[in-house]
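Workshop exercise sheet. Pairs work together: one partner reads the sequence aloud, the other fills in the structure field after running the prediction. Swap roles for the next sheet.
Pair: D.N. / O.F.
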Amino acid sequence: MLVFSRDTANRNRGGVLQHDDAMNQHNLEGVTALFAPDPKTVIIGTGPGERFQGREEIKNAYTEMFKDFDKGTLKHECYWREGGGDEKLKWGAAMCKFSDSKGGKEREYGLNVSAVLKKEGDKWQFVMMHYSNLTGAPPPAQ
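Structure field:
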């Protein structure tokens, strides 16, 4: 989930790629370690109640996400992204097209992602992530 502008991404690409690789490989410990240990660290999803706060809830959320697609099948292309920040705090947002498969059945979907990372010692860690996607039927044709 590449969430930064190209300039910001180039400076922090390692952490973003670590997240993407860990997600695609269903590496629960790897993806969880990318989030700050602060109990206020949070992921917010699309619907009401989709809030996962603290590392244990974040770990549980990824456990459920991994059930939605087969290991190694997650791909994405972000067609818009923006970001910024300074030497201690970075933010980013992206609109992406994703594809994956589950049991040989392929799917494609759009996802909006935003995140904030904070520098903890010598490494960047997520302190907030929000993702949303369309649910239900597409809007009627005009």
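Discussion prompt: The radius of gyration is 15 Å. What would you look at next?
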